[in-house]
Amino acid sequence: MKNLIYLFAVLLFFASCSGAKNILFQIDEAARVQTDVTVDVRDNKYQVIKPGDKLLLRNLTNSTTIIRESANQFNVGSLVPQVELMVSVTGFATIPVYGEIELAGLTTIEATKIIEGLYGKEILSPVFDLSIISMRVKVLGEVARPGDIFLDREKLTIIDILSRAGGITVNGKKNNVKLIRGDLSNPIIKTFDLTKLSSLQDEFRFLQDDDIIYVEPNSALLYSENNRFFNTFLQPLTLVLNTILIIITLSNK
């Protein structure tokens, strides 16, 4: 009989812990301290080009000033001459006329200035636009449409992406939205309280390629899930245990 009581107590303990297990990306105290490190603000505002990125280079210069060789290699069928570039594993991309140049590690702004400097030898006042067209972020947790969302431009904020994901559901914690960035073995984790205007001014609000956004479920949802666990598993088991205890008690009389 003592063993039955002990088993029942253990089951109740695990039931009380089941809600916490449904919360992803829980941060221990050591990790919380690590999230407060100072990082280069430049890296939070502009996308940094990486090996494997797909780029779109657009020539915004007046078409009469484009040199013949580069015009032949740009897609002139569009309103704006453009060409797609792939950044190799070594960090280089091949641009028309000038061939391979190293772009990995540069922001798109920095890379654009380098490209304009090269074409400036042949073009009068060159104007180019360079963007990364392979960027995406993952949105998980309590949003209407979780999944991958592609970034079609720079300086998209966490609010922009949550909007594209259909917004936070009624079961989501608006004051506990996590942003996970960088190498997952040692990531930067930032928590946003979207009930405060200060979150709209945070330097981490601009998203980068491969960022992960996680909206934590609120206590009401966890309570509901605990009740569901109790109703579908523990409640029938409790009835069985009570029946066994009654039989044992009656048989001992």
Verbal overview:
This protein has 253 residues and is an alpha+beta fold. Helices cover 36% and strands 22% of the residues. It is built from seven helices and ten strands. The protein has helices at residues 2-21, 29-34, 41-45, 68-73, 108-119, 158-164, 219-252, and strands at residues 54-59, 82-86, 92-95, 99-102, 128-132, 136-141, 147-150, 172-181, 188-192, 212-217. The protein has a five-stranded mixed β-sheet with strand order 7-6-10-8-9. A three-stranded antiparallel β-sheet has the order 2-1-5, covered by helices on one side. Helix 1 runs antiparallel to helix 7 (219-252). The protein is elongated. The chain starts with a helix and ends with a helix. Mean pLDDT is 75; it is low at 10-15, 29-42 and 64-69.
The number of helical elements comes to 7
Going by helix content, strand content and strand pairing, the class is alpha+beta
Helix content: 25-40%
Helix and strand sequence: HHHEHEEEHEEEHEEEH
Q: What is the rounded distance between the termini?
A: 15 Å
Radius of gyration from CA coordinates: 28 Å
Order the strands across the largest sheet as they lie in space.
7-6-10-8-9
As residue ranges, the low-confidence spans are 10-15, 29-42, 64-69
- Mean pLDDT, all residues: 75
Main β sheet profile: 5 strands, mixed
Shape: elongated
